[in-house]
From TrEMBL:
Name of the protein in its database record: ABC transporter substrate-binding protein
Signal peptide interval: 1-27
Record flagged with keyword Manganese: no
Family membership: Belongs to the leucine-binding protein family.
Gene3D superfamilies xrefs: 3.40.50.2300
Annotated keywords: Amino-acid transport, Signal, Transport
Length: 409
């Protein structure tokens, strides 16, 4: 099957076994999706591609799937500035205005503010990011298609240690902040993995900074003198830029490992030239946006040509595509089970827990995704992609890297 045929079939109502129902267009029922965003906070630089990829997926779904099954989706963005208090303040108004059947979240503040509210509101939230240890609880209403940042980091550390060779643990420094629960969670998970696997990883220091640091020369000098072989920064691009500037001023060549929201392209733009990220890495449990002709890339290009997608082919866009597709496939499954005119948040949550969303369902942007009632993210069979800058070019360093198990922290 060609990729083009793959996209055509995947968009049909009978796509990939998810749907066997149909309804006349005149019988459409309209539902709303709440889209949380950060247009004015620390992640404003990545929102253009992330949010820019979400909306065209819904436009495509409405035209090529929803129309056939009698469902139409509306969507509205809400800027919460990546602040948990702002999320909590906005939420009652969002519910009253939209009565959403599902929420598309964007980060840690959404989880911190809403994880205690969504069960009683009976509205599930699908995240674009990796998960958080503080939300690793049974009976989830928040769903991450990726494991925690710590799981993804551990996959990278194991890979880099094997690449390095030798028997000693990989020495890791972490740049973090106590300003966000998500940031604290990232380093705590890695610390747990290091404590349980002292032969694999040693955390030489966790450096605490403000949310958007400007000068980290003293701190970076200290951790490099302690022998750090890699510096983990999964907070934001400002921290990456400050650390990179510090390494350059000190004449040190220690790679930085980033995540999807502050990765190579985003941090490269922030620092002025992606070539300055030579030898650095990003890791995440989803496809890397390389130049290879993949089903995900062709789906993206189809959205550009037919549905007005303006985003660039970046990691942030891949996040938005994966998130929106998980939500759309769950809505399809709910419509199949309860009927297109009876979809509720509760029905969508049940669909997320009972339906395996295959790699084909997401155009291989994600692997096979199967949630359970044990927690908010899949815990088995996960693999990660690792990308880097080599000779000034963005490229995949490794694919299918196993994500190790980590005990709860």
């Amino acid at each position: 099957m060609t990729i083009s045929k793959h996209i055509k079939i995947a968009g049909a109502a009978a796509a990939l076994g998810l749907l066997t129902i149909s309804a006349p267009a005149s019988a459409q029922t309209t539902y709303n999706v709440a889209s949380l965003a950060d247009f004015t906070g620390p992640y404003a630089d990545v929102m253009k591609d992330l949010i820019g990829a979400r909306r065209p997926v819904i436009d495509w779904w409405n035209a090529e799937v929803g129309k056939k099954i009698g469902v139409k989706l509306g969507i509205k963005d809400y800027d919460h500035r990546y602040d948990a208090a702002q999320v909590a303040s906005l939420w009652p108004g969002i519910k009253a205005e939209l009565n959403p059947i599902i929420v598309l979240g964007v980060g840690g503040p959404d989880v911190a503010a809403l994880q205690g509210r969504l069960p009683s509101d009976k509205i599930p939230m699908v995240m674009s990011t990796a998960a958080y240890g503080f939300a690793w609880k049974p009976d989830p209403w928040i769903f991450n298609q990726r494991p925690t940042y710590s799981h993804e980091a551990a996959a990278f550390f194991d890979w880099l240690r094997q690449k390095r060779g030798g028997s000693g643990p990989l020495k890791v420094a972490i740049i973090s902040s106590e300003a966000s629960p998500a940031y604290v969670d990232q380093h705590k998970g890695v610390q747990r993995y290091a404590a349980d696997n002292p032969d694999k990883v040693e955390v030489v220091e966790v450096v605490f900074t403000e949310v958007q640091p400007t000068d980290l020369t003293t701190q970076v000098n200290r951790v490099t003198r302690k022998g750090a072989e890699v510096i983990m920064i999964m907070t934001n691009t400002a921290a990456v830029v400050a650390t990179k500037r510090a390494l350059q001023s000190l004449g040190k060549q220690v790679p930085i490992i980033m995540s999807s929201h502050n990765g190579l392209a985003e941090s490269g733009r922030a620092i002025g030239d992606v070539k300055q990220m030579e030898g650095d890495y990003e890791v995440y449990a989803m496809a890397a946006p390389t130049d290879a002709k993949t089903p995900g890339r062709e789906f993206f290009e189809m959205l550009q040509s037919k549905y007005g997608l303006k985003a660039k082919w970046t990691v942030s866009a891949v996040q938005g595509l994966g998130q929106a597709l998980i939500a759309m496939r769950a809505i399809e499954a709910a419509a199949k089970k309860v009927g297109p005119d009876k979809i509720t948040g509760e029905a969508i949550r049940e669909a997320l827990l009972s339906t395996t969303i295959s790699a084909d369902d997401t155009f291989k942007i994600l692997g096979n995704t199967k949630f359970s009632n044990e927690g908010p993210f899949p815990t088995q069979g996960l693999v990660a992609s690792i990308a880097t800058i080599k000779d000034g070019k963005y490229m995949e360093a490794a694919a299918g890297v196993p994500v190790p198990s980590i005990n709860k922290w």
